[in-house]
Amino acid sequence: MRATIAVTRWARDSKLTQYVRLYRDDPGRVVEVASEIDWQSTQCALKAAFPLGVSNSKATYNWGAGTIQRGNNEPVKYEVPSHEWFDLTDAGGDYGVTILEDSKFGSDKPADNEVRLTLLYTPGVRNSYMDQHSQDWGVHKIRYGLFGHPGDSQAAGSEWRGRRFNQPLRAFAIEKHEGSLGREFSFGRCDSQQIDIRAMKLAEERDRIIVRVQELTGKPATGVKIEFPGSIETVEEVDGQERVLDSVSADGHALAFDLDAFQMKSFAIKLGPIANAKPSPVHSTPIEIPFDSDVVSLDIDRTNGSMDAQSRTYPGEVLPQKLVDNGVEFRLGPSTPNAMQALACRGQQIDLGNAQGNEVHILAAATEDVSASFRVGDVDHQLGCKRGPGLWGSGTTGCLIASLQKPTSNAKGRLCRFCRHTPNVIRSPGLRRTDTILRKEMKHISLSIFTTTYCPNLKVERLV
After folding, report:
1. CA–CA dist 31, 8 (Å, integer)
2. Which one, of 387, 395, 389, lies nearest residue 423 by Cα?
3. What is the pTM of this model?
4. What angle do CA 425, 426, 428 make, to 5 degrees?
5. Cα dihedral angle (107, 108, 114, 116), rounded to 10 degrees?
6. What pairs with residue 297 in β-bridges?
7. Residue 200: in which H helix or E strand, if any?
8. Is the torsion defined by CA of 438, 455, 330, 289 positive or negative?
9. What are phi and psi of 130, to 5 degrees?
10. Residue 62 CA to chain centroid, in angstroms?
């Protein structure tokens, strides 16, 4: 979820539209600016200037193979290079701002409290180099971002922010099919945030996998481990041309190594067969819920049903009959007019019958941000639910999937956004999840959509 402000400017025969975006949760720590520019100006540069509330005579610039600090502009040093990000942290080291750049590599620093990112440049040619007269003319789409942080850029993880900004995760859909790797699989898992796996590829001339790593923070890293899906048969340290430098010991599936500040290393690894990672199927038992509220309506009659004081409802056209999350099935109530689909929580007791399992999964939604205490057997679990802002005509419907486990006192919930509706458009379902730990307790709440699924291996007598 995000909020966007659009700003359009015209100057010197060029048009610039900036979309200033702020995302929800952790991505919201970065203010993103996406610009669409029709550039027709001559003899000038276009820069994004950042007059900041922090001041330092030196800024930090990332080079991809380390960082360097540089001072303010000089007559012969009025633009400097960087890769993915540069940072201005206050001289006291208490706070700083990182500028995230996407494929723009030049910037300058005119004052202690100001940095500027160069976006476009059309030089004056003065009757020579006429081919540069229209350099950079045309339509451009440019992204950059601001990441404010406590401490310096290394402690704040600016390197990872820059990487995510330049290489965001790409989601794609495929047809349902049988697979042998299960719901989760990793080609390589590193146990240290100090280390980045820069590359993983097949060797040029041998039956090996090349893994390149680098230390990111400018501090030595010892005892770093990378785990692979198969056992390691042989491993060698190699150079950039994949020539063997030295043999390295490995322990089962894990490669252990040390790195100095900003050091890079490459390894040639031969893996054994990858074991079938397909887990045992999840067996779940949906529990019958005594629904007492009609919170769903259809487009032909939006007045039917009510979830809140404004009589808003969920769009029945996009509510599935069942929702499957990691193999656990939830059965939703019918969307037909006057049917019941929700249980308003007022301290009721739900009998789980003879079902056997080790977890209780709850699907819940709320008309406002609330927290609650759920009891499974004799163990209380604290659970919170965010307001679902997507009732008719107001955005995205939201619900919470929570897993309550007997040994723990805190529950983990995942926000599950499974439909989006505007008055005239219905879009296909999709999922987004975020992990939260929920602590605050209230004795009375109103959770309006409530369905429970029970998984085998632990007997729980009732849910209160």
Report:
1. 18
2. 395
3. 0.60
4. 140
5. -30
6. 315
7. strand 195-202
8. negative
9. -65, -20
10. 23
End-to-end CA gap in the chain: 33
Look at residues 99, 224, 87 and name the one whose alpha carbon lies nearest to residue 152. 87
Tokens of 147: 């990441």
DSSP 276: -
**Residue in 382, 392, 383 with CA at minimum distance from that of residue 425:** 392
Q: In whole angstroms, how far apart are CA 403 and each of 100, 364, 409, 458?
A: 37, 11, 12, 14
Give me the residue label for tokens 């079938």.
Answer: 276
Q: How far apart are CA 307 and CA 391, in angstroms?
A: 9
- 114 vs 438, residue with greater confidence: 114
Question: 412: Cβ–Cβ under 8 A, 6 or more apart, which residues?
Answer: 402, 403, 435, 436, 437, 438
The 3-state DSSP class for residue 165 equals helix
pLDDT one-digit tens code per residue, 372-409: 777 777 777 777 777 654 333 333 334 444 544 433 33
Which position has the token pair 């940072």? 87
Instruction: Output the six-digit token pair for 410.
Output: 């805190």
Q: What is the DSSP string of 283-326?
A: --EEEP----B--EEBTTBTTS--SSTT---EEGGG--SEEEET
